[in-house]
Amino acid sequence: MCLILSAVAAAFFFVLGRVKKDGSSARKASLAFAAASLMWCVDGVSSALAGEGFFDLSAGDFVLGLIVLAAGSALYVLLEVFAKADDGFASKPHRHGAEHSKNL
Hints:
Elements: H1 2-19, H2 24-49, H3 59-91, H4 96-103
């Protein structure tokens, strides 16, 4: 279930990154979810080689998938907040040079 949820989230954030004007945060979240999907694929292959099923559709795995979704979504929100903060600092004029020259 974690593989399914993280793959859907990777596709969602990939599309969001392509649609948004500045979708760098969404593309980074998409990359994180794609990496998680790759990890779950390796886990599924390992389980299949051990004689178990590739997909784990248990309730515990669903809860783990929701935790992964929450963590990845929190990453996206933090990246957006920091991107907006950087834009705010970049748009303000710097007066440090004028203050520094007064003190000399």
